From TrEMBL:
Lineage, broadest ranks: Bacteria, Bacillati, Bacillota, Bacilli, Lactobacillales
InterPro entries reported for this sequence: RND_pump_MFP
Name of the protein this chain belongs to: RND family efflux transporter MFP subunit
Classification via PANTHER family: MULTIDRUG RESISTANCE PROTEIN MDTA (PTHR30469), SLR1207 PROTEIN (PTHR30469:SF33)
GO CC field: efflux pump complex
Segments forming a coiled coil: 94-173
UniProt keyword Transmembrane helix present: yes
Length: 348
């Protein structure tokens, strides 16, 4: 039998092949290691943050009181006085109405003389009628004269009443007064001619602020709000009682603002104080980046769970109205690798 011999290089190649086959077999038989879970950042689902605005304390009503006619004679109040509705704050005098009063007196005297004349005419007509019987010629005519005289007398008396009322009205305007249309506190000022004006500030106070056009629909009448004075730290819960439908004067292009007010307790606040106004919002809040195509991923037992949500974006957040519960943890920025049921780790 012929002996088979191998050259050294053939032996080397064989050894290399054996080693490669061994490695391949080992890799095939070796148990596969479990893939490492991806790490994500999560946040806890919480109630939506309230809208916060700076505001001021204002009087519900403010009115400057000046004479409607004539000039002020005297001021009957002092700075800081509290007045009641209907209380006089100044007396007035009008020279123009003084001249009209003289004319009105003359008209009244004329009307009174007319009454006297008509009374005499009626008496004469009645006396003439009494001299006749119903069968006498001229009796019917005499009756008509009495009726006419009575009517003319009534007309004359009505003219006297009208003239007297006009005179009374004019007299009140010659020497009149300016009265407070509502209760409040007064401030007295004088112009360069020495004529006074009285500014009346009502007792009723209100919180006032302006909300952005982008927040307008998040604010409603009778909505509960929280008001805090920055100076005194006094707080009050109250309700919105006015929401303007036209922009405020301080509005800018593409940034309309609308006035909102709410009543305040006068004993706890002062006109002019600066306020922090907090307007609670409904719904839950998550970062806007956590919502992809109407879905978020919450973490349950270290696995991602895809959940559909509804709501709207607001100032970098997403206000959820349905789909989530407070306290759940939501992945902040899900990537394309994240799938429903995928094992995840969190770094928070």
């Amino acid at each position: 039998m012929k002996k088979i011999s191998f050259k050294w290089w053939q032996i080397l190649i064989g050894l290399i092949v054996l080693v490669m086959l061994g490695d391949l077999g080992y890799s095939m038989l070796k148990p596969k290691a479990e893939k490492t879970a991806t790490t994500y950042t999560t946040v806890k689902v919480k109630s939506a943050e309230p809208l916060t605005y700076s505001g001021t304390v204002q009087a519900v009503r403010t009115q400057v009181l000046v004479p409607n006619t004539g000039k002020a004679q005297s001021v009957t109040v002092q700075n800081g006085d509290h007045v009641e509705q209907g209380q006089a704050v100044m007396t007035t005098y009008s020279q123009d109405y003084e001249e009209q009063v003289a004319d009105a007196r003359s008209a009244l005297s004329k009307a009174q003389r007319q009454v006297t004349q008509q009374q005499q005419a009626l008496t004469q007509a009645q006396n003439q009628l009494q001299k006749l019987t119903s069968t006498d010629e001229g009796y019917s005519e005499a009756q008509e004269q009495v009726t006419t005289a009575k009517n003319q007398l009534e007309d004359a008396k009505a003219d006297v009443t009208d003239a007297q009322n006009k005179l009374n009205t004019l007299n009140s305007k010659v020497n009149g007064s300016v009265t407070a249309p509502f209760a409040g506190t007064v401030t007295v000022e004088y112009d360069k001619t020495g004529q006074p004006s009285v500014t009346l500030v009502s007792d009723e106070l209100q919180a006032s602020t302006t909300v952005s056009e982008y927040d307008y629909n998040k604010v409603s009448l009778e909505q509960q709000i929280k008001v805090t004075s920055l100076a005194t730290k006094k707080k009050q819960e109250t309700q919105i009682n006015y929401r303007a439908t036209t922009p405020a004067e301080n509005s800018k292009a593409n940034e309309a603002k609308y006035t909102v007010t709410a009543p305040l307790n006068a004993g706890d606040f002062m006109v002019g104080q600066t306020l922090n106004i907090s307007i609670p919002q409904e719904g839950l809040q998550v970062p806007a980046t956590s919502v992809k195509n109407g879905y978020v991923y919450i973490v349950v037992n270290k696995k991602a769970q895809k959940v559909a949500v509804t709501g709207q974006t607001s100032n970098g957040s997403y206000i959820v109205t349905d789909g989530l519960s407070s306290g759940q943890r939501v992945i902040v920025d899900p990537d394309g690798e994240l799938k429903d049921g995928k094992r995840v780790e969190t770094n928070d």
